[in-house]
Amino acid sequence: MYQEAWKRMLEANHIVIVSHVHPDGDTLGSALALYDVLTRVGKKVTHYNTNNELPRVYDFLPGFAKTKHVLPKTFDLVVSCDCSTRDRLKLPKGDYEIINIDHHITNRYFGQMNLVVDRFTSAGMVVYELLKANEIEISKECAICLYTAIADDTGFFLYGDMDALTFSIVSHLVKCGANPQEIASKVKRREPLSKIRLYGYMLNHFDLHENGTIATIIFDKAALESTGAKRHDTKNIINMLRSIVNVTSAIMILEEKEGGYKVSLRSKDINVSQIALEYQGGGHKTAAGFEVPSCDPTVLRDEIVAKIKRITEV
User: Fold this and answer.
1) Burial class, 157, CB count within 10 angstroms (exposed 0-12 / middle 13-18 / buried 19+)
2) Which residue from 103, 107, 100 is spatially nearest to 121, judged by alpha carbons?
3) Single pTM value for the model
4) CB neighbours of 137 closer than 8 A, spacing ≥ 6?
5) Are 263 and 281 in contact, with CB atoms under 8 Å apart?
6) Whose CA is closest to 71, among 16, 33, 11, 28?
7) Ramachandran quadrant class, 228 (left: phi over 0; alpha: psi -120 to 50; beta: rest)
8) Does domain 193-313 have CATH number 3.10.310.30?
């Protein structure tokens, strides 16, 4: 699988590596690691992301500034990083193949080649195994990207199905030049003031349901405007609600600027990805999400709370 995918990349004329819409550290780290490796072997490569503004906490990643927001006129291969569904690529249909690199249990296997390993904590681990299988040397720049990908998607090693392989890989990446303290500081200690204000808003407005076991928060456009927060400031903010001692599940409903709502689900044990799938979303057992058209967010919240209750009663 890995050898065949690498061979196809080497045969391609122009590769577009795509990180998903509203990117996080895993999709950017995985994509930029591949960008580093492929440019070093002389391939014509573009890293594309549909969002004109990327989260600045990842601006230290090698290659970050070279990200393009307009597709090249011609390309024959797309490498998708950390996307469970094709629509998150935001790509038009065209005459190209897709290599789908991912780790989500809900992946739709939309590529001509699918490197999907759902037991891995991150797409970064899949990229690492791809490079290892093809005996590709990992540069310091690549190591920084892959370490960030793995660390970010596990909440810096707080959650996810981590095992000995996870720590074996990050240990090797440190030997290759990744600095754990520096990366953690860049990602976790540069929060914008707007996000801190958003935390304050959440702590003053969240609700508890089912005897305090489910926590919910609804962010409308006014909440973001009043705090000065941007959409990417909401990333993982829901984890604070999940950390409350008696809370087992948390729900965040975010009103989108363009209309509709983004829903993020978190849990300590139950499988929230099965709820996300009911709404054409996806994710992991304890972290999933989906998007819905405009609706009454309180009705949607109560609907999801009821679904979680039914799962816990089984």
Assistant:
1) middle
2) 103
3) 0.91
4) none
5) yes
6) 16
7) left
8) yes
- State phi, psi for 26 to the nearest 5 degrees: -70, -50
Report how far residue 214's alpha carbon sits from residue 193's, in angstroms, rounded to the nearest whole number. Answer: 28
Q: How many degrees, rounded to 5, is the angle at CA 26 between CA 200 and CA 19? A: 105
Q: Are 9 and 77 in contact (CB under 8 A)?
A: yes
Say which CATH topology domain 2-188 has: inorganic pyrophosphatase (n-terminal core) (3.90.1640)
Q: Residue 286: count other Cβ atoms within 10 Å of its Cβ.
A: 19
pLDDT tens over the chain, length 314 residues: 899 999 999 999 999 999 999 999 999 999 999 999 999 999 999 999 999 999 999 999 999 999 999 999 999 999 999 999 999 999 999 999 999 999 999 999 999 999 999 999 999 999 999 999 999 999 999 999 999 999 999 999 998 889 999 999 999 999 999 999 999 999 999 999 999 999 999 999 999 999 999 999 999 999 999 999 999 999 889 999 999 999 999 999 999 988 999 999 999 999 999 999 999 998 889 999 999 999 999 999 999 999 999 998 87
CB 234 within 8 A of CB 217: no
DSSP 6-43: HHHHHH-SSEEEEEPSS--HHHHHHHHHHHHHHHHTT-
